[in-house]
UniProtKB/TrEMBL annotation:
Organism listed in the record: Sphaerobacter thermophilus (strain ATCC 49802 / DSM 20745 / KCCM 41009 / NCIMB 13125 / S 6022)
Ranges of residues in domain Acyl-CoA dehydrogenase/oxidase C-terminal: 250-410
Cofactor(s) listed in the protein's UniProt record: FAD
Family: Belongs to the acyl-CoA dehydrogenase family.
Protein name: Acyl-CoA dehydrogenase domain protein
Annotated Acyl-CoA dehydrogenase-like C-terminal domain residues: 455-551
Record GO terms (molecular function): acyl-CoA dehydrogenase activity; flavin adenine dinucleotide binding
Organism domain of life: Bacteria
Domain Acyl-CoA oxidase/dehydrogenase middle: 145-237
UniProt catalytic activity: a 2,3-saturated acyl-CoA + A = a 2,3-dehydroacyl-CoA + AH2
Domain Acyl-CoA dehydrogenase/oxidase N-terminal stretches: 32-141
Residue stretches spanning the membrane: none
A UniProt-annotated Pfam family: Acyl-CoA-dh_C
Length: 586
């Protein structure tokens, strides 16, 4: 791929310019496919057979499993080769995360170790720190954890109260405070801990489990992800050598906030894997379960659920790999932390989109999976019950979905004010365009769908422009409006990703699901616009903008039921998420 010069290649640029191409799973090379297969085999042979035991409290089983992943390779996918890793593109980490998702709590162990636990050291560690710790983390000899949250600070990460004070001899920082909800804490050897030096300068530290003054609370009794360890990390004059400061004093926010982007797109990938797992469980059960003399898979009500689960999974998968492909393109050939992080930060908006989209697709799939199983879905004997419980926390991880919904428009506004995206100019041109009596009826393959996606973008821009015009800087207090704009942007990005992938591959099944999702989002967008426009406009202006919203969300009737039945048939034939082998692409 070329350099990120075109507007559509830049973060948020898709709102103003349609993509000419996207990266998608059909582009996976042999390395990606091999590591995916290695991970899938590991999950099936090593993790799933002991997952019940781990769920029931045998958390020590996490340790040999992590060590085996170190032997197999996936553990070091994003660690540089000189420190024992494979130094592979980000798409590989996303694919491994997707394949790991069916393991629930163990997937959290893996993700906390390889992502937020290890990557701060990869990007901000000194040469000495990397040589000391990364080989152990790549092999699984040591397990990593990340300690940011505190009992009194959740979404307000910078409100942390943990303090760090330099010792009298200047050799150690003494850390005092309590960290909450720390994944891997029961068996982690190395923690990335955030504290305020002298109560003021937010800073990251590398804290070993055996340092004096480090202790743990008991295991939290969780609703789900029971196979993972979650405890408090208690610091009482914990002695941390000065050479274990990670990054710069007072610059801990750069680590904390940048690392969230990695976590967010990986939560999107994990959501895809968990949704596929729920779909496979549901399709298998639906074919086996008989009611009224026939399999419940033969009933339209069940087929509709399976089709919707597959459709949402398809567009989410398309959005995830579209984004990670752009990230890999942006950082290819780059050296140095600042250059690499700039490439990832470029797509912070998209990472937040993926976090919300992926976790809510997963939630939808496991919820419908339980419904398809009926009463049996409520029993622990059936894996869908654990999948349902394990999914819920994902909407809280890495910033709640509400926080991410608010961040999406806020980050776009900031990019516009900095001159990084010409959103204001586009909004100005849009005002004139919206006064035109009607829009042209496009012709050609995918032309109508692409025009409908473009109209969704116009609707989001229109509402955002009206909101900024009315509220100015006070728009931060209009969270309900921002949430609506965020939803429009999430749905539009997902719909466009599905359409672009279907157009690229020429796969009829992908085309069916892309159209199903887009049609549903047009209806959803009209409902959202009708609800929010009275907040940003009134009188004759309101009537005009409501009329424009109806035009921008105009839908062409088609046999949704018939198309959903075709998608369901493909799901049932595959026993889960379908994988079309043929392409009509030229």
């Amino acid at each position: 791929m070329a350099e990120n010069t075109a507007l559509w290649r830049r973060g948020g640029g898709w709102l103003l310019e349609s993509p000419q191409e996207i990266y998608c799973p059909e582009d996976f090379d042999d390395t990606i496919k091999t590591l995916a297969e290695i991970t899938r085999t590991f999950v099936e042979r090593d993790v799933l057979p002991v997952l019940d035991r781990m769920d029931q409290g045998e958390l020590e089983l996490n340790v040999p499993l992590i060590q085996k992943l170190g032997e197999l390779g996936p553990l070091g996918a994003e660690i540089p080769e000189e420190y024992g890793g494979l130094d592979l593109p980000k798409v590989v980490g996303a694919v491994i995360t997707e394949e790991m998702a069916p393991t629930g709590g163990f997937a959290v162990t893996y993700g906390a170790h390889t992502g937020i636990g290890t990557l701060p050291l990869v990007y901000w560690g000194t040469e000495e720190q990397k040589k000391k710790y990364l080989p152990k983390l790549a092999s699984g000899e040591w397990i990593a954890a990340y300690a940011l949250s505190e009992p009194g600070s959740g979404s307000d990460a910078l409100g942390a109260r943990t303090r760090a004070t330099l010792s009298a001899d200047g050799r150690h920082y003494l850390l005092n405070g309590t960290k909450q909800f720390i994944s891997n804490s029961g068996f982690a050897n190395l923690f990335t801990v955030f504290a305020k030096v002298d109560g003021e300068h937010f800073t990251a530290f590398l804290v070993e489990r055996d340092f004096p003054g480090v202790s743990l609370g008991p295991e939290e009794k969780k609703m789900g992800i029971k196979a993972s360890s979650t405890r408090q990390l208690i610091l009482e004059n914990a002695q941390v050598p000065v050479e274990n400061v990670l990054g710069e004093i007072g610059k801990g926010h750069r680590i904390a906030f940048n690392i969230l982007n990695f976590g967010r797109y990986k939560l999107g990938a994990g959501g895809v894997g968990a949704a596929k797992h729920a779909l496979a469980l549901s399709a298998t059960y639906a074919k086996e379960r008989r009611q009224f003399g026939r399999p419940i898979a033969s009933f339209g009500a069940i087929q509709q659920k399976l089709a919707e689960m597959a459709t949402r999974t398809y567009v989410t998968e398309s959005a995830v790999y579209r984004t990670v492909g752009l990230i890999d393109e942006a950082i290819a050939g780059k050296t140095g932390t600042d250059a690499i992080l700039a490439g990832i930060q470029e797509y912070a908006v998209e990472c937040s989109i993926l976090k919300v989209l992926g976790t809510e697709t997963m939630d939808y799939a496991v919820d419908e999976g339980v419904q398809i199983h009926g009463g049996y879905g409520f029993l622990q004997d059936f894996p869908i019950e654990r999948a349902y419980r394990d999914s819920r926390v994902q909407r809280i991880f890495e910033g709640t979905n509400e926080i991410n919904r608010l961040l999406i428009p806020e980050m776009l506004f900031r990019r516009a004010l900095k001159g990084e995206l010409p959103l204001m100019e586009a909004a100005g041109r849009l005002q004139e365009e919206l006064l035109e009596p009607d829009f042209d009826d496009p012709e050609g393959p995918w032309a109508r769908e692409e025009a409908q996606v473009a109209n969704l973008k116009k609707l989001a821009l229109m509402i955002a422009g009206l909101a900024v015009q009315k509220f100015g800087t006070a728009i931060e207090e209009e969270q309900e409006v921002l949430l609506t704009i965020g939803d429009l942007l999430i749905d539009t990005y997902a719909a466009e990703s599905g359409v672009a992938r279907a157009r690229k591959t020429g796969l009829p099944l992908w085309g069916d699901m892309a159209r199903l999702y887009l049609d549903a989002m047009l209806g959803k967008a009209l409902l959202a616009a009708t609800g929010v426009l009275p907040r940003v406009a009134e009188g004759d202006d309101l009537s005009m903008y409501l009329s424009v919203a109806r035009r921008l969300t105009r839908r062409e009737p088609f046999d949704r039921i018939g198309v959903q039945r075709e998608v369901a048939a493909a799901v049932l034939a595959a026993g889960g998420y379908p994988q079309p082998a043929a392409s009509r692409a030229g």
